[in-house]
Design brief:
Elements (H helix, E strand, L loop, with lengths): L4 E4 L39 E5 L3 E6 L5 E5 L3 E6 L2 E2 L5 E2 L12 E6 L3 H4 L1 E8 L14 E10 L2 E2 L5 E5 L10 E6 L5 E5 L19 E5 L16 E2 L16 E2 L2 E3 L5 E6 L8 E5 L7 E5 L8
Length: 298
C-alpha cells in the first residue's frame, strides 16, 4: 500500500473544473489480465501527478494558481509552483474526530478571494469531547470560513457557519462545497448514519440535506423553509434543530439524502443545476438532479 498521489483534471474553460482527490494505492489487482494501466484521457484534459499528499480528500484553486488540498487527518496543504509547502496552512486535527470516515472532507475558495482571502472547510468537529458514536453527545460535522493570508490560516479567523446535530455513526459525512453562479454557497450534508431514518427527510435537522447559505453564513432569499415555524439550526445561541418538533431549519435547501459525498454544478445551466452523487449500500448508487429548493429525494 503506497504512493498516495493527487491527480487533477482541468476543463478547457478554467472557471469550471473537475476535481478528483484520489489515493493511488498499488494492489496486485494492477497485474490482473485485462487491466488498463493507462486509461485514455478525454480531449481538453490532462492526467498529471502533481504532488504526494497523505490521505487527500478534496482540492480547490486560488486565483493565483495555488492548489489547496484537504487531508483526512485535518491538515490543509498548499501546492505552490509544483511543490507542497512544508507546513500545512492549518492543522485542525487537535479539534477533530477522524475515526472511520470522519475527516477534513472539503475545501472551497470564495469567488472574491483576491479581496477577502476567504476559504471554507468542512470537517468533523469534536464538539462534545468524545469521538464515540452517539446522537446525544457525539461529534458534529462543521462548516467554517477561514482567512488564508499568504500560505497560513490563523485559527482565530474561524467563523462557524453551521454545525450538524451529533453523529450517530462514524460514516455518511458527505460535505462537498460549491459556490454557484447565483453567488450562494451550497453544501451537501450526510445523514451521519442516523439511527432515526426519518431525519434526512425531516427539515428540522441538517443531516441528509443540501444546505444553501450566503458567503457570510446568512439565509438567502428563496430558501424553502424560512416562514413561520422555522429557525436557524445548530448554531450556538439558538435552539438546536429537532428541539422543537415541527421547527424547520432555514439553512435547508433540499432533503432526503443519504451520503451525498460529492456533487457537480452544470456550467451550462442559466440557473444552478446540480448532479448529486448519493452513495448507496451494496446494490446501487444514486445520481440525483437538483434545480429547485424544497426537493425531497426520499
Amino acid at each position: 500500500m503506497s504512493a498516495m498521489s493527487l491527480f487533477h483534471g482541468v476543463r478547457t474553460n478554467r472557471r469550471y473544473v473537475i476535481l478528483v482527490a484520489a489515493l493511488s494505492i498499488m494492489f496486485s489487482v494492477l497485474a490482473m489480465p485485462g487491466h488498463a494501466a493507462d486509461a485514455a484521457v478525454a480531449p481538453g484534459f490532462e492526467d498529471v501527478v502533481v504532488a504526494d499528499v497523505n490521505g487527500p480528500t478534496d482540492l480547490d484553486w486560488t486565483p493565483d494558481g495555488r492548489i489547496l488540498v484537504t487531508s483526512k487527518n485535518g491538515q490543509l496543504w498548499i501546492i505552490e509552483n509544483g511543490s507542497v509547502v512544508s507546513t500545512p496552512a492549518i492543522d485542525l486535527s487537535p479539534a477533530m474526530c477522524t475515526n472511520g470516515e470522519r475527516a477534513l472532507g472539503s475545501v472551497a475558495v470564495h469567488p472574491n478571494f483576491d479581496v477577502n482571502n476567504y476559504v471554507y472547510l468542512y470537517y468533523t468537529f469534536n464538539k462534545n469531547g468524545t469521538c464515540n458514536e452517539s446522537e446525544i453527545d457525539g461529534p458534529v460535522n462543521r462548516l467554517s470560513r477561514f482567512e488564508l493570508v499568504g500560505n497560513t490560516i490563523d485559527p482565530s479567523s474561524e467563523t462557524v457557519l453551521f454545525d450538524t446535530s451529533p453523529l450517530y455513526r462514524d460514516h455518511h459525512n458527505a460535505g462537498d462545497i460549491i459556490f454557484a453562479p447565483d453567488g450562494f454557497l451550497y453544501v451537501t450534508v450526510g445523514d451521519g448514519g442516523a439511527r432515526s431514518l426519518d431525519r434526512p427527510q425531516d427539515p428540522g435537522y441538517l443531516l441528509g440535506k443540501v444546505v444553501r447559505l450566503t458567503g457570510d453564513g446568512g439565509i438567502p432569499p428563496g430558501n424553502p423553509y424560512t416562514g413561520a415555524g422555522s429557525a436557524r439550526c445548530n448554531i450556538d445561541g439558538v435552539p438546536p434543530a429537532g428541539s422543537d418538533p415541527g421547527t424547520s431549519c432555514q439553512e435547508v435547501f433540499a432533503n432526503g439524502l443519504r451520503n451525498p459525498f460529492r456533487f457537480a454544478l452544470d456550467p451550462n445551466s442559466a440557473t444552478p443545476r446540480f448532479y448529486i452523487n448519493d452513495v448507496g449500500q451494496s446494490a446501487y448508487e444514486e445520481i440525483s438532479e437538483l434545480t429547485t429548493g424544497g426537493t425531497d429525494f426520499g
